[in-house]
Amino acid sequence: MQLIFCALFNDQSFDKSTRVTRKILTNPKHVNYQSNSLRSPAKEKLIMFGLAGGDPRLSFKRTIAYGDLAIVYEKHEIMRPIIVTPNAELHNRFGVFMHNDWVGKPFGSRVLSVKGVQGYVYILAATPEIWTLCLQHRTQILYLADISLVIMYLEIVPGCLVLESGTGTGSLTTSIARSVAPNGHVHTFDFHEQRAQSARADFDKNGISNLVTVGVRDIQGEGFPDEFQAKVDSIFLDLPQPWCVVPSAAKMLKQDGVMCSFSPCIEQVQCTCEALASQFTEIRTFEILLRHYEILRDTGATSEMESGNSRKRKHDPSSVNDSIATTTTVFARPCRFAKGHTGYLTFARLKFKSS
Ligand SMILES: C[S@@+](CC[C@H](N)C(=O)[O-])C[C@H]1O[C@@H](n2cnc3c(N)ncnc32)[C@H](O)[C@@H]1O
């Protein structure tokens, strides 16, 4: 349990940030969007860790305060977003918890119930990874495996200007926002007024509204607004007929800009690739099939799934932590119910236009 938990909320590894910095320094297109603050190595490091400008709540604020969006973690399948509120109580099957008790503790803390069963939950920071797993769906959404590839192949780094349509539930937008922080921006468009409004409210709750602007617009009918012409680093489309938007995307992208289209059906991919052929190069389509593993523990008497024992979970004051007894064997096996096809991701780079 300890291992999985650490992996879950240690979302900003040094390695990852190092790679991002290398990109900023070697690719002039990304330096353009950095402010003058990219002068000293110390400042650079601050940007790398998301601490210079922007909202620290994005990932790096490590202490719980009133007004924070926090995730109450019971187990992988049960996570609940909550706003930390003075004198509020949380009731669940593990007892009654007081929000006041959490304030000042680091995110990731285990907190104890004050009434009812003597249970506990973990209070996690609402990172984009966790948010995607517990947000309220208003549409189909992109999940972590697809999101990861999108961020990497769209080359989204701090300072980028990104266009997206449709916004949907904002699952992908939240990750893009973190990647462009602290001084980049995402302009996301949906033609559904109510969805756009709900997405704005979610971005506000997540503390990223300074990084995201939600527009209401029929992108398939009208294309992206002219104001972005030749200014955009990356474009992402999750629309029923993405091929209609390819000419507009080509106009918006800067030299060397990259676009991606997510489509569930291969016929959509075919139409998109045909539309891309004249103005784009490096056209590639991927389908990601992720394999999950169950972590199990065998106590000798019975085998029990690690994540399935939380019904019996009680706080034992005599134990320092959740460590598994020395006689327990821990092993892993592929999950019986694997998530299959989500969609196809088609990437393409704008062809070089000689002037
Ligand atoms: C599947 S959802 C996008 C989900 C999003 N990628 C996420 O991760 O949450 C597709 C969205 O595209 C929007 N949409 C469909 N046609 C559109 C159009 N012509 N212009 C703008 N948005 C459109 C829909 O309203 C819907 O919200």
From TrEMBL:
Molecular functions (GO terms): tRNA (adenine(58)-N1)-methyltransferase activity
Classification via InterPro entries: SAM-dependent_MTases_sf, TRM61_C, tRNA_MeTrfase_Gcd14
Binding site for S-adenosyl-L-methionine: 190, 218, 238
EC number: 2.1.1.220
Primary site of residence: nucleus
Residue stretches making up the tRNA (adenine(58)-N(1))-methyltransferase catalytic subunit TRM61 C-terminal domain: 119-349
GO BP terms in the entry: tRNA methylation
One GO cellular component, as annotated: tRNA (m1A) methyltransferase complex
Location within or outside the cell: Nucleus
Catalysis performed (reactions): adenosine(58) in tRNA + S-adenosyl-L-methionine = N(1)-methyladenosine(58) in tRNA + S-adenosyl-L-homocysteine + H(+)
Keyword S-adenosyl-L-methionine among record annotations: yes
Gene3D superfamilies: 3.10.330.20, Vaccinia Virus protein VP39
Database matches in SUPFAM superfamilies: S-adenosyl-L-methionine-dependent methyltransferases
Similarity section: Belongs to the class I-like SAM-binding methyltransferase superfamily. TRM61 family.
Name of the protein described by the UniProt record: tRNA (adenine(58)-N(1))-methyltransferase
Lineage, highest ranks first: Eukaryota, Viridiplantae, Streptophyta, Embryophyta, Tracheophyta
